[in-house]
Amino acid sequence: MQPSDQHLPWTMIGYCQTSMTRVLFIAISSLALVGLQREPESKVTFIRNGQVYIWTTLDRKPQQLTSDPSVKRMPRWSPDGSRIVYWDADDAKGSLGNLVVLRSDGVIVGRLPVAAVTPAGIRIEGMHGVEQIGWADDADVFAQGNINPYADEYRVLNIDSREMHSFGGFGFATCALRGITAFWKPVFPNDDTMVLADSRETGPLFEIKEARDLPTLNVPLTWDGGCDSIGFIDPRPPLRLVVISIRERKSQTKAVPQTLTDIHLEAAPDGFLIGPGSLLRYSVGTNKLEVTSEDLLTTLRKRHRGRRDAEKQLQASDSDWWPAQLTN
């Protein structure tokens, strides 16, 4: 009896009577499947029905990691993709909640209160609420929240020791792979200057004078794919891409087309993709700005669409993908 064609891989054309030919076709089919699996493995953590889930492109089956009734928000992958931190928002109005760390099999390995307290248990004022959380590095997680109209507080908590330290600023961008956070230090209205600093406290990386004249104080920071450089679009006309090498502490600039609107940066292995639509690609090594190749654009659009479709089918909210970078 002949097998149904609809159950055969596309490389098996027709049905062969001899066993040897069958083996040959099966071998060719297996090689084709290996080729299909060369797409980068990725996985997503998300909230559904109030619980934390994960889903991978390999098994394509959602796995529920939590089951308790607490309010959960913002699940985020660790740099190596082995653990997740999420914000347990229960009683957050009085205590700022907890950061809960769990392995990808659902085992909780840490529960850290966000509120800073004295040894006597008195809460230290500062952050009014939690707006962002994530990983500062492999051993530390962070919570970020507003403290006044000019600044946020960024609290770093060690998973093992539970020790906490914090610093103020805004526009925080964290490279958990390197354990470095870049941010703007607001010192105006004193001297009307925005200072770009990092968590290593090695001095200013860049300064924007006369910040009051900026069309916006929202100047997003983006790390390149290797976390060697930090980049941003200087909003002062004419628009420029500014890239600062963290190691050499040197900056280089490149003019961007003034016709672009809603410009944003996305990490690439050797620099940045510049949007909207990742139309331009900047190389840090050559300081060149070029049109993104059609092949790369097709790949990016395919992967964006694949992730978006997966989230829709999973009924996922507050999702976080690992790896976050879509380019190889």
Overall description:
With 328 residues, the chain is mostly beta strands. It has a domain at 1-38. 13% of the residues lie in helices and 40% in strands. The chain has helices at 19-36, 92-95, 294-314; strands at 43-48, 51-56, 63-64, 72-77, 83-88, 98-103, 108-113, 132-135, 140-148, 151-158, 164-175, 180-186, 193-198, 206-209, 222-223, 229-234, 240-245, 250-255, 265-268, 271-274, 280-283, 288-291, 317-322. The chain has a seven-stranded antiparallel sheet, with no helix packed on it. It has a four-stranded antiparallel sheet with strand order 3-2-1-23, with no helix packed on it. Strands 4-5-6-7 form a four-stranded antiparallel sheet, with no helix packed on it. A hairpin with a 4-residue loop joins β21 and β22 (288-291). It is globular.
Give a brief rundown of this model.
The chain is mainly beta.
Class inferred from helices and paired strands: mainly beta
Proportion of residues in β-strands: 35-45%
Give me the count of strands. Answer: 23
Spatial shape: globular
Amount of helix: 10-25%
Major beta sheet summary:
7 strands, antiparallel
> What is the CA–CA distance across the termini?
46 Å
Low-pLDDT segments, ≥5 res: 1-38
Which whole number gives the mean pLDDT? Answer: 83
Number of helices: 3
The Cα radius of gyration reads 24 Å
Largest sheet, spatial ordering of strands: 8-9-10-11-12-13-14
The helix-strand sequence is: HEEEEEHEEEEEEEEEEEEEEEEEHE
